[in-house]
Design goal:
Blueprint: H1 12-20, H2 39-48, H3 51-67, E1 72-74, E2 80-82, H4 83-98
Antiparallel strand pairs: 1-2
Length: about 130
């Protein structure tokens, strides 16, 4: 399973990661990136639901997942994480998505689908882009 993030936001998955805060900025104890979701999971949500609902579903999943963790964690290096603050942000994100405050990407591309075709003007033969 792959996990990627492109800051230029070329795909709906990258935009979803940005909204969820799942951009690979967090590092674990050995310096490896920490991800909340695999690419395949976000792609499946975006494929099944409209973009905003897919992000809301992902945010709901993070609330459920991290509600089971200790409220606060501090490692040996002094890094301190308070999950309850993040859970509130994900709840707010889900509400905004469902209220129509968060829209989908502006491109016509949805997930990994795209269309190609030929354009023709009247009287123009064998013209394509």
């Amino acid at each position: 399973m792959a996990t990627t993030y492109e800051p230029a936001l070329p795909t709906p998955r990258d935009r979803a990661r940005l909204l969820l805060g799942d951009t690979g900025v967090l590092l674990d104890a050995v310096g490896a990136r920490v991800w909340f979701y695999q690419d395949e999971t976000l792609d499946a949500l975006i494929e099944e639901f409209k973009f905003a609902e897919a992000v809301a579903q992902a945010a709901d999943g993070l609330c459920s997942r991290f509600a089971q963790e200790p409220d606060e964690y501090q490692d040996e290096g002094g890094v301190r994480v308070r999950w309850n603050e993040r859970i509130e942000q994900w709840k707010t994100l889900a509400k905004k998505c469902r209220a129509g405050e968060i829209g989908g990407p502006k491109s016509g591309v949805a997930g990994s689908r795209y269309a190609t075709g030929k354009l023709a003007a009247p009287g123009v033969e064998n013209f394509s882009l």
